[in-house]
Amino acid sequence: MTERGWADAGHVLCVRLDGLGDVLMTTPALRALREARPGRRLTLLTSPAGAAVAGLLPDVDEVVVYDAPWVKATAPRTGPEADHAMARRLADRRFDAAVIFTVYSQSALPAAMLCFLAGIPRRLAHCRENPYQLLTDWVPETEPARLVRHEVRRQLDLVATIGCRAADERLSLAVPPAARAGVAALLGAWGLEPRRGWVLVHPGASAPSRRYPPELFAQVVQGLAAAGHAVVLSGGEDERDLVARIRRASGVDARSAAGRLDLAGLAALVEAAPVLVSNNTGPVHVAAAVGTPVVDLYALTNPQHGPWAVRHRVLFHDVPCRYCYRSVCPEGHHHCLRLVRPDDVVEAAGELLARDPLAA
Fold first, then answer.
1. Using alpha carbons only, what angle is made at residue 318 by residues 314 and 324, rounded to the nearest 5 degrees?
2. Fold for domain 178-354?
3. What are residue 294's phi and psi, to 5 degrees?
4. Is residue 242 very low, low, confident or very high in pLDDT (cuts 50, 70, 90)?
5. Under 8 Å CB-to-CB from 353, ≥6 apart: which residues?
């Protein structure tokens, strides 16, 4: 299919079926699709986890939620009825084209088959195997044999093959004014101001392999407090106990926002933070989208997902088993994170704060 054929596509289905951070890292490519044709509509087909952030994306017009059976986090089911129903639902929408976004370890073929069955006439994706009729626009998969790109660059390169390029390649996320006001009130109740004199620490992550140990996070909180910084800890409802454990172990009067904010509120809190200290998880990409400097505790599970286009420090301990792509450390020692010294985390946060005198 030529670039000219894609220029006629007024309504494009964008398929991104994994997590929140993956969806955020696709936003520059979504912007490129939007900017290439005035009036183009983008519908995002995504997982429940991806849908949580989709409502905050300025270039997405509509969201369709789908628990795809070929995605790791999907619960088991006994039959294909939901998948047949989704194919019919997509067919009813009469999309002009579909772009399937995947990491290189995922196959695009199941999603391509879904779009083929839905009668979507143009279908673009990276693919390792020959897709034959399932893709009209096949970009042969070269990763990781030839190179490994950042996930943002990978998706920008994909849409560039059909003539779509973004003038601004930063991540995008729109923080609702009400969420921003709510966070300002919360900070005010704690005697804190946006972008001034405190550090946000996010100690959770969905995969155990990406979690810096809680006892070391407690030492980070101690070090930040000793350096004169107030500390706010964030997390979801299911991370309240983790945050409470870190607060107790640190002996510091750190403030806890765990379980108090929805995703829009978390985005507003990250936006207000002078600096974020986090495992390599969704809030790192939220920080990149809102321009907050970040100290990224980066488990060496995957080289593609670091902070993008934002001031940052990435901390890890190099190990022979790097880039294992596992959710649980296969060696059992977790050295890539466990051997990162808390003092180095505190120092990295201080360096980022020093770059902005108002934030320190």
1. 95
2. Rossmann fold (3.40.50)
3. -140, 135
4. very high
5. 199, 229, 274, 275, 293, 359, 360
pLDDT at 322: 63
d(CA 298, CA 105): 19
Q: How far apart are CA 186 and CA 193, in angstroms?
A: 10
Domains in the chain: boundaries: 3-160, 178-354
What tens digit of pLDDT does each residue of 108-156 get? 999 999 999 999 999 999 999 999 999 999 999 999 888 889 999 999 9
Q: What is the pTM of this model?
A: 0.92
Residue scoring higher pLDDT (180 or 73): 180
Q: Which residue has the tokens 């107030």?
A: 230
CB-facing half-sphere around the CA of 186: CA atoms within 13 A = 21
Q: For the chain, how long is the longest CA-to-CA vector?
A: 63
Of 297, 255, 250, which Cα lies nearest the Cα of 273? 255
What gap in Å lies between CA 70 and CA 79, rounded to an integer?
13
Sheet holding 312-315, edge to edge: 255-256, 230-233, 198-202, 276-279, 294-297, 312-315
Same fold, 3-160 and 178-354: yes
Q: Which of 78, 68, 60 is nearest to 114 (CA)?
A: 68
Helices (H), 195-308: 214-226, 240-250, 263-272, 282-290
Please give the structure tokens belonging to residue 337. Answer: 């994170």
pLDDT score for 355: 80
Q: What is the mean pLDDT of residues 201-230?
A: 91
Place of tokens 């009668």: 119
SS3 call for 140 = strand
Cα–Cα distance, 198 to 187 (Å, whole number): 10
Name which of 349, 348, 324, 347 is nearest 335 in CA terms. 324
- Non-local CB neighbours of 197 within 8 Å, separated by 6+ positions: 229, 230, 274, 359, 360
Residue 14: strand pairing partners: 44, 99
> Of how many residues is the chain composed?
360
Query: Looking at the domain that runs over 3-160, which CATH code has it been given?
Result: 3.40.50.2000
